[in-house]
Amino acid sequence: MSTKKKVGILGASGYTGAELLRFLIRHPRMEIALLTADRRAGQAMEDVYPQFAPYELPRLVAIDSVDWTNAAFDLIFCALPHATTQKVLKDVLAKAPSTKIVDLSADFRLTDPASYAKWYGHEHQALELQQEAVYGLVEIYRRDIKKARLVANPGCYTTTAELPLIPLLKARAIEPDEIVIDAKSGMTGAGRAAKEEMLFSEVSEGVHAYGVGRHRHMAELDQEFSKAAGKDVVVSFTPHLMPMNRGIYATIYVRGRRGKTAEDMHAILAEQYGNEPFVHILPFGKVPQSRHVRGSNMTFIGVIADRQPGRAIVISTLDNLAKGASSQAVQNANLMLGFAETLGIDQVAMFP
Amino acid sequence: MSTKKKVGILGASGYTGAELLRFLIRHPRMEIALLTADRRAGQAMEDVYPQFAPYELPRLVAIDSVDWTNAAFDLIFCALPHATTQKVLKDVLAKAPSTKIVDLSADFRLTDPASYAKWYGHEHQALELQQEAVYGLVEIYRRDIKKARLVANPGCYTTTAELPLIPLLKARAIEPDEIVIDAKSGMTGAGRAAKEEMLFSEVSEGVHAYGVGRHRHMAELDQEFSKAAGKDVVVSFTPHLMPMNRGIYATIYVRGRRGKTAEDMHAILAEQYGNEPFVHILPFGKVPQSRHVRGSNMTFIGVIADRQPGRAIVISTLDNLAKGASSQAVQNANLMLGFAETLGIDQVAMFP
Amino acid sequence: MSTKKKVGILGASGYTGAELLRFLIRHPRMEIALLTADRRAGQAMEDVYPQFAPYELPRLVAIDSVDWTNAAFDLIFCALPHATTQKVLKDVLAKAPSTKIVDLSADFRLTDPASYAKWYGHEHQALELQQEAVYGLVEIYRRDIKKARLVANPGCYTTTAELPLIPLLKARAIEPDEIVIDAKSGMTGAGRAAKEEMLFSEVSEGVHAYGVGRHRHMAELDQEFSKAAGKDVVVSFTPHLMPMNRGIYATIYVRGRRGKTAEDMHAILAEQYGNEPFVHILPFGKVPQSRHVRGSNMTFIGVIADRQPGRAIVISTLDNLAKGASSQAVQNANLMLGFAETLGIDQVAMFP
Amino acid sequence: MSTKKKVGILGASGYTGAELLRFLIRHPRMEIALLTADRRAGQAMEDVYPQFAPYELPRLVAIDSVDWTNAAFDLIFCALPHATTQKVLKDVLAKAPSTKIVDLSADFRLTDPASYAKWYGHEHQALELQQEAVYGLVEIYRRDIKKARLVANPGCYTTTAELPLIPLLKARAIEPDEIVIDAKSGMTGAGRAAKEEMLFSEVSEGVHAYGVGRHRHMAELDQEFSKAAGKDVVVSFTPHLMPMNRGIYATIYVRGRRGKTAEDMHAILAEQYGNEPFVHILPFGKVPQSRHVRGSNMTFIGVIADRQPGRAIVISTLDNLAKGASSQAVQNANLMLGFAETLGIDQVAMFP
Q1: Could you give the ipTM of this predicted complex?
Q2: B335-344 burial string, b = 16+ CB within 10 Å, else e?
Q3: Tens digits of per-residue pLDDT, B39-48?
């Protein structure tokens, strides 16, 4: 008798899909029963990602070919593009309402329909689901996630910045109006689409900012920071592309509030995350490196005093494909299915 | 009652030491009871490799401080430099003769004392152990390894080249006198020593051969190929350093013998490795990529026909720190301790 | 009165087009009068390559909009794709027969129409020009190039391999039937087309061979080597893609003929290239690195004895975009226009 | 009769020394008459940097062996380490007082002896020279540089940040108390010293901040910004190391003052640098990339409006070895010797 839950991945041909597989192939309680990829339907997974050749996996199928009513999946990971996602999931849940879903797209992260319409340029097509969805930042919303049917897995930039800043804002330890987030990302964050600006020779041996003043992850940051601060918060956030595959590195400049020092901020974070398996607070003054979390579900956070009294530099780093996407999705799924939270995602980081 | 075996790592501060830890921390049947690093003695492992901060590990100690007689280790992984190794292991086995050892250095790979003296410039200091040692190329010497006390884990270049070539030579399918091995390695193969020629700016954005005509891994190749061919074999072997961290990629040029074609060679390898968990033979004509085995214990091998009749190109690739060193060491240890061979080293490759 | 010659670049939006501009902007005797790029027609060059923003350059135009009859260009660099090239140049030379042309495509490199048809799968569309074209490997065909109207600039792999091998074959110093060329290339060699397999995350941190047994540069090698050897030569040639932008690195395995040693080979090359400004023969036994020619028109060649008597390893390296394409094109143009050969292309290599 | 000036490089074996040579070998008015490198004395330059093999250059000598009194150098580039520099130059100028000097170290950048002592931990050993030295940020201090005997070439981080910020502070267009500078540097900025933390495998595939809250370039920034603002300015400045060779990329967060908008800031910079050959202001809202200035003496600056009213993001980028060190040094030397400012340093950037 199998005690495994039957799971599927929608959009298995993208990088987050492949990364989900890396974790799920070795997950002791999940059975991979479905892999979809519309443009690669009919192919084997190893045709898309040769590293999976040694493993037995279902062939890729088109989403439309899935018989949702009879398939009886326990949980679906959805790694489809924005906008497509809301249509597909509305359909899936209409046909198989007891399916649990972890969605890795941006479609269900924003609670406010107006904010969604503003940042994405159109009305949301599945408003009821938008209201139902729970924001899947595990360390903050664990309780709600356990009971959720639909979880919106947070963005990679947002997970990196929210883990340190939400507790600091909640504690009223920093000025909410003076937060500057300078974020650096590896290239996998931009996905597998064949675009000129993502070619090796266009991005190696150099660095550049993008989406300056208008990156969509800002909407997600605003939502969570405003909630934490109890007032509207608008941050300065600038993402950069680095010549590396994996890793988000957020250098966050903050000013202490009501006499709070960098040491106080460190104490708040150490207290908050002391028992968390996947968030590690470095000793005060120590600087994390993105490579030390590579391939793992860990987030490393450091707090350093600026030479300007009252100011601090908070640095947070994680692997954008792992904790920033796929392993956090499995972390959410573990909670939703009643498993130990760390199951299948406790791999040690790979450095060098 | 613990069912775990007590293991230690000598030389834990090098890259192969760190990579051993990556696997052992999650190994279900091994308990890490000792970590040595003479120059870092007294420090925590996280001071040397910050990625280990989240885990409880013994502090680093000096080798001389270990009480071998009373410690009762079940197995020791030795990741010390060449020459030091033979002295240390001679001492360890004198004091604790029932300890099993997997040695990752070159010290016990050569069977012939004369060959050792020629390539290393001095007499071997532990000749009896040299004779006792079993060459730890698991897929070829599995039976002997299970019974061994001392296993010499093969070199990274040699594992890459021997896995495809030993079966072809044994089958008399290729000309032993016309083998050209052009090997490309990631930088971790050169270790963690602070040398000018290994600085980022010296090795990025370029490629170069090194040790041309005189790399020590040649002695190991000669030994194994001559054994397989039943006659003296001397190959052309040229190693190159690539601007990447991990991966060995051996492009091997061979000529078929007695009418043997590239297809025949492919069939021999497919037959030999059909049931091996860690060697994957690609479909005939397909070309492997080093990145698809990154971080895993897998070896990928492809066979392609050259346009010159009777000639073939055999390409073999693995992760130099994993199957080329540390996870093969654990694979050996699993066999020596009577565990399932795949225990703790069945991680899926990490790409991208 | 201007003493500058009026030149144009067809296909200025590719990497070789941009690299031509890098040299031509500072060329003391050439005036850039035309830049074409059909898909970017109407745009400024800085929209395609921002590094050119500080310089005054003609806007990009479509090829069809050029009035060849009246424009009176002295010389055209053609950096268009294969097959398109022969149609365009046939038309240009029909309308403006006195225009000199350096073509960077493969269209005019093969002399034999049958060889062309075999490797490219269709009949050549400009057979007369094919017969007229001179192969632009400057150090070998300098005399013919000076008098040529149409020069076929050699491929990057072929320049790298031919510079060392043509003199050795001519001198009958090596066995023509046992040549193995293992070539490694930077990613710019693959051009600027937006393809999934050229994305940063697909090619960084790894290496792989491609076109094994069937790369089209083989036809060019066969032609030149057969001519040099005075008999049909078919080599083993395997190209690889490296995680770096620039550089070709050819590791060539040869066997001496009629008692010729590696030292003899070195002497032949040193003699041949002793006075060449752009070919540097390293001292015997020294190994070149691709990074030491980066950005320059230099080729570095080393000859090392193999440990197998009678065998040698010849290593040749150049910058695929410079000597492997654009600066060699300028070198050809200098000869065709009667300028000093080194004019505008004597930049020192950029390392680190 | 030679019209060339006789120049020397002290400390030719470091990266800035090699980069100086790259420019000086082709400089039409300078003759390289001296190369020193104490630890490599007696060697040829090509033994230290093989790319220089094709050129005739003086052999490396020890500084102590130079006969300053009789050598009659017109100008010396000093690329020695901090602290050593002040002793050496004091001696040189005592013996040959008419020698002009461009110093690339930090020794003469700070005007205030107290500031120097605070940041460097000891009293300055050449106080008179410290007072005499002119700060060599050409676009700001051109007039003084022309008359100077001793010029202190600015640091790479500081040049990057000062070029955009000095004019904005002088114009009172930004709040001096709310400047955040997040800077990213290529690895050549850390020099050629063999340190573990600079090995390829330690810095590739990841990013990290360093010197957080205490980098010495802060002293230089404070000095120049306070001078420009007419009041004490203390900025937040965090440097990061990127997995790339060359390039500094400073993302600067500022708040407009007295109603000044991002557009106003852009106008101020466009006005200031409109006629400068080596500073290019991008169209408003455009984001520069470090790779587009690689190898050149150019600085690219962009100004983008933040979504928070009144705030702007100013991005400045240059090549740390070129405009951030060696080609700016030649720019200074050109002015000091009465040459055209652009002589020998007008190479076009190399991308890709």
Answers
A1: 0.97
A2: bbbebebebb
A3: 999 999 999 9
